[in-house]
Amino acid sequence: LYGPRDQWTGRISAPAGLRLRLGPGTEYPDIAILPFQEAVRVLGNSADWLYVEHGDGQGFVFQEWVDRLTDRDPTVPVVDLAVDLAATPEQRLALPPNASDRATLLVDAWNRYGGLLTDESLELGLEPKVALAVLLAESLGEPFGADGRMTIRFEPHIFYFRWGKQHPSLFQQHFRYSPDHAWNADHQHDWRPTVDSPWRGIHTDQANEWAAFQVARTLDDEAALSSISMGAPQIMGFNHATVGYSSPQAMFADFSSSARPQIASLFRYMQQNRLVQAVRNQDFLAFARVYNGIGQEELYAQRMRDWLAVYADVAGDGAVDVQAAPGAVDVMPLPGAFPLPDATGSAPGDKPLAEADPQLYAAWRQHIEQGFQNNQDMFQRILAAFMTPYYTTIWMYRILFGLGIAAFAVAVFMALRAPDASTAIWTSAIFGGLSVATFLGYF
Description:
Elements: E1 8-12, E2 18-21, E3 30-34, E4 39-46, E5 49-54, E6 57-62, E7 66-68, H1 101-124, H2 128-139, E8 152-154, H3 156-164, H4 168-174, E9 175-176, E10 190-191, E11 200-201, H5 206-219, H6 221-226, E12 228-230, E13 235-236, H7 248-257, H8 259-272, H9 276-280, H10 284-291, H11 297-315, H12 353-356, H13 358-417, H14 421-442
Antiparallel strand pairs: 1-4, 1-7, 2-3, 4-5, 5-6, 8-12, 9-10, 10-11, 12-13
C-alpha cells in the first residue's frame, strides 16, 4: 500500500468499462464493472495491478486502463455553463390564483431550475416534471438554506458505521439513534455538543443539521462528509465517486458553490445506478428503494407521486413537458451503498427484509453465499499452495529414512555372508557409510 502522500486519483480509460477484482489477477472473481471515465482512488499496487478504492468498495484493476489525473485534469465533473439554470419564458409556470403553499414551492423551484432540468432530462429521455418531483421530494427544491449554506441532512447511523463503530464511547457522547429504526428520524436522531448538554433533535431544522455535522467533522472529517446528504437532490457523500468526484470533500466543495452541479449530479446518479428506466416509467418505488434506501422507499415514493399531482394541478396536462430524444442508454450499474441491516438481520424498517422485499432478499442472500464461496475457493488455493510442498517434503524424509534402514540392513547382511574378512569389511564400509549418510541427511 502507498502512504497517504503517494496515493493518487485516476480515471478508467477502458471504453467498455473495467473489471474490479478481488485480487491482483484474472483468476480472481469480479466485484463490479467500473464505467468509462469513472474516478477511482489508487491506494497501492501489485505488479501490473492497482489496488483502488471506489465508493464503498476496494479491489484490484489492471493498471493499463487507469489514467492518472494531473493537476490540470478536472477533479470534479464538468457542467456546461452555457446551459441556463432557469426556465425559459416559454417554459415558465404561472402561479394560479389561491395557490397552495406546495404549489407555490413547485412553481418557484421550476422557474428557478427548469432550464437545467429540461436539458438534463432530454439527455436521458425523461420528462422534466418527474425530475422536478424528485427534487421536491428530497429537499423541497432548496439547494441552499436561508443562511446561504448548502441544504444537508446528517445521518448519525451512517456516521456510526463509518467511524463511531471503532470509537463507540466518543460517538455516544455526542450522538444517539435507535438501532432498530436507524433510518427513521422519529426514533432518536439526536446530538449534543458536550456530555453536559441536553440532547437535541438533528432533523428539526438546518441549524441543528449543520451543528451536528460540524461536531462530527471535528471527530473525523471524511466520515462526517460521507454521512450527509447534500443539496437539492440530497445525494449522500459516500456516493461521491458514483457522481464523478474523487472524494466527499471535492463533492462538498462543488455542491457548496452552486445549484448547477447539485442538479446535474442527480441525473448522473440515475445513470450510474441504472435508474433511468424506473424514472421514465414513473416507478417511484423502484427508484426510491435505491435512492433513499430500504425502509424509506414507500415514504419517498409517495412524496414524488404527490408532487407530480401538484404539478398536474398547476401546469395542466403536459404544459411544460418536453418530448425526450429517443435512444437514451443507461450505463453499466455500480454497486450501490444500501443501508446496513440491524443486529437482528432485519431491514431498517418494521419488517424483516425477507418479508419486506423477498426478491431483494433472495438477491442479497445469493450475493452473500457467492461471496463465501469465493472466499472458500481462495482459501483452498492458498492452502494448496502451502500444503503441497509440505507434503512433498514429508515424503522425501520418509524415503530418506527408508534408504538409511535398507542400507544398514544390507551392510549387516553382507558382513555376515561374506566369504572372507576383506570382502566383509569393504561391503560393510560401503553400505554402512551409506546408512550413516542417509541418517545424517534425515536428521
